[in-house]
Each structure stands twice: as C-alpha cells, then as structure tokens.
Amino acid sequence: MTPDIQVTDFVTDVGVPITVALLGVAGALVAAGLSFALGRWGDATARRRDGYAEATKTLISYREYAWKIRRRTSNDPEELARLADEGHALQEKLRYHQSWVRSENRWVGRVYREVREDLAAEIGPACNAAWNTPPVTTAAGMCLSAWGPAGLDAYIDRFESANEFRFGWRRMLGALRVHVGVIPRPTPGAIAVTNEPAVVPASSAAS
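Above: the chain's sequence. Below: its structure in token form.
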C-alpha cells in the first residue's frame, strides 16, 4: 500500500514560488541570450552587406574612369593632376576591397580578383587612349556613344552573382562550395577595347 505523501507548508509557501521565480529568471536569460545572438548576427550581416556594396561601388567607379578622362575639359596641370589622383585613389580602394572580400570569403575574393584583372585589361588601354585625345571643348563632344570598350557591365554582374552566395539561403550552398548560377568568367579578349564606333553602356554615356 502506497503511503500518502504529505506536502509541507514550507514546500507550498516557499519552494513553489522559488521554483516559479527561477524558471522565470531562466526564461528571461534564455530570451536575452537569444536576442543578443540574433542582434549580433543581424549586425554582422549588415556589415557584410555594406562591405560588398562598397566593393561593387568601387568596381563601378573604376569602370567609369576612362570616360572621365576622355571627357576632361582641359589639359591644365591641375585638372590632369586631379584625374591622376583619382586614378591612384581608385587603385587603393580596389586593393583594399580585394583584401577585405578575400578575408570575408576566399572564393568570392578570387572572383573579385578576377573581375578586377579583367576590368583592368579593358580599362587600361581605354585610359591610355583617353589621355592621348584632346580635351572636350563642346557640348557635343561629351557624347561618347561611339567610343570605348563595350560590355563592361558583364564583369560587375559576375561579381554581384558571386556575392549573392554570402546571403540568405544561398549562403548554405556557398558553405558546401556549390555555386550554381554564378556568371562564368568571360573569355580573355572577348571584349575588345577600341576607339572605333562601339556600343557603350548607357550609364557610361550619361555619366
């Protein structure tokens, strides 16, 4: 025969409230810890997103550099020095972003390096040609739709398709080294630099 279990007044009056209080404190601590972890994760994601946005912005600025040289309005030493300094600053930013992207993810860093090299192969000769042209002296001269390398957006699109694997559900695929859907690297020399009539992206013609 099972003996009756007597609940003492101490258990009722003290033990139960303490247990309830401890459970409440534990729940609050768990909630606070989860909130902190989610906050840190959100901050890290925001910093990563900002970093990739800045890296892309620098690629776009580099893409436009030859057209800036070509549209200069004078060969005054001050103007030439300004444009040269801008080119040096772009190279510094490109190198910084390449290092940052590589430290954030080695695979995306490799893609960024390749995109930078491919753009340089196109932009370098275009810049040399631009420096050797006379300054623009008329409004019509600002229209450069028949000048420069074409298709440069393809390189930047490739980098953007790669950094998508650092966010959302694609990040899980990236962790498994599965990068389905990334734009392939263009064949070297497929996009030629020329001073002959060529289709230049609208953003370049309007910049």
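The radius of gyration is 29 Å.
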